[in-house]
Amino acid sequence: MTDLSMQQTTQEAGMGDYFALLKPRVMSLVIFTALVGLIVAPVPTHPFIAFVGILCVAVGAGASGALNMWWDADIDRIMKRTAKRPIPSGRVQPQEALAIGLVLSGFSVVLLWLATNALAAFLLAFTIFFYAVVYSMWLKRSTPQNIVIGGLSGALPPMIGWAVATGTVGIESVLMTALIFMWTPPHFWSLAIFVKSDYGNAGVPMLTETHGLRTTRNHILGYMIALVPVSIGLGFTSIGGWTYMATAVAMNIWFGKACYDVWRRDESAADADNYAAEKTAFKVSLAYLFLHFSALMAEVALRTWDLGGW
């Protein structure tokens, strides 16, 4: 970190560079799942309060991203897929990213507390701390279980949305969080397999590097199997329904098949460097999560219009 902080920027940073610090692609997933958590909650929320709540979650997610980029600037410089990020490319100084992350963290938590309730603010503060400190500063560089444990930070947004509306934590929000938590390992490890040299070059103890591809494939299938009861179980709660259940069954079959294809790959085969199965599993995993949460919103719409229900 020291040598990076002393480097001079090679070109002037623009607004797009500062926005990139917030990891907008990750932020979009956080916003979506938090919004679903708020919408499916049994307590109606005033539109303005809902807007402020989701805005705070988005800002908090962006703050986490900026703090992560500040801390990981040294390894981001080495990895091909991150070398063009604002800090390693020299467009933004590390101190700027740190300041942005800290200011946005404080702003989002305090505003969420004032606008909604203490529980929602606490969950947001915990999420930021867990991602920036527990995952980025500790787990990521110390254990191959980094993405498993660290995945909790990305799994909490629907619980925050639920807390914004209700001020409580219900079994529904716990299962939505568990769905994302159990989904993260097969999703991320599929990516890690076909970008594995990046993590090895940066010295990150990803499972692909510490235990090999065979073990990683076993873990992908294992977590996929463990994901099924969480997915189906959510359908039996107050926010589930026939639409959600049909979606969950279909997506578990689709994602399960994709993970099975990853598991059955033989590294000694002639096409061992052809990671088509892993790339497919990664893409299917994105659809898996999006359609699960979309189905939960569809259940709300159906109930609102009295066209269905469990």
TL;DR of this structure?
The chain is mostly helical and 310 residues long. 73% of the residues lie in helices and 0% in strands.
End-to-end separation in angstroms reads: 54 Å
Silhouette: flat
- CATH superfamily of the largest domain, by name, is UbiA prenyltransferase
CATH topology annotation of the largest domain:
Tetracycline Repressor, domain 2
> How many separate helices?
15
Can you name the CATH architecture of the largest domain? Orthogonal Bundle
Query: How many strands appear in the DSSP assignment?
Result: 0
Care to describe what's here?
The chain is built from 15 helices and no strands. By secondary structure, the chain is mainly α. The protein folds into 2 domains: 14-168, Tetracycline Repressor, domain 2; 170-310. The longest helix is centred in the C-terminal third of the chain and has 29 residues, at 276-304. The protein is flat and about 55 Å long.
Q: How are the elements arranged and paired?
A:
Blueprint: H1 2-5, H2 15-20, H3 24-39, H4 47-71, H5 73-76, H6 94-115, H7 118-138, H8 146-155, H9 157-166, H10 171-194, H11 196-202, H12 207-210, H13 212-234, H14 242-263, H15 276-304
